[in-house]
Amino acid sequence: MDFSSLQRMPNTEEIDFFKRMAQENKMVGGMADFETGTFILNPFRQWKSPEEKESVMANEALRLFMRSRNLNPVFELTDEQKQMPWLTGSSYKDDDKAVRETIISRLLSGDPSSGSPTKEQIGFAESVLKLLSKFGIDGIRRTK
């Protein structure tokens, strides 16, 4: 699925965020903007491949989709997932909903940093895919 219609250019504040993350050696690929229903890719990221970039786009778009549909992933994280570097150093490590949305979106995009999923996580991911195939991405993007 093509998620590029949900992408927008970063504003000055977001560029500063990406610069700060790079200085802290935290190379963030992108972030979702739930207010506008868009996502931003890190303009400083050196992508290893087009597939890596597409995976980050899918991750952020899937998080937007879950929020726009008021999906609330409720499941336990595995010990492996609790120790993932992206989680332990993230700005939303204390936001359970954001963490679970990220795990599901990474699982669905084939990103191994989701960790080994549980049956419950796989079941939730499958339900997200069914809804995505039914509704598509229409209605996610909003204007301010």
Description:
By secondary structure, the chain is mainly alpha-helical. It has one domain (4-135). The protein is built from six helices and two strands; from the N terminus they run H-E-E-H-H-H-H-H. The chain has helices spanning 12-23, 50-68, 79-82, 85-88, 96-108, 119-135; strands spanning 30-33, 38-41. Strands 1-2 form a two-stranded antiparallel sheet. Helix 2 packs across helix 5 and helix 5 (96-108) crosses helix 6. The longest helix is centred in the middle third of the chain and has 19 residues, at 50-68.
Strand content: 5-15%
Query: What's the structural domain tally?
Result: 1
Helical fraction: 40-55%
Would you list the SSEs in sequence order as H and E? HEEHHHHH
Taking the sheet with the most strands, its summary is: 2 strands, antiparallel
| Average pLDDT for all residues | 89
Integer-rounded radius of gyration: 15 Å
Shape: globular
Query: How many DSSP H or I helices?
Result: 6
Kindly report how far apart the N and C termini lie. 25 Å
Tally of DSSP β-strands: 2
Helix/strand class: mainly alpha
Q: Low-confidence stretches at least 5 residues in length (pLDDT < 50)?
A: none
| Strands ordered across the widest β-sheet | 1-2
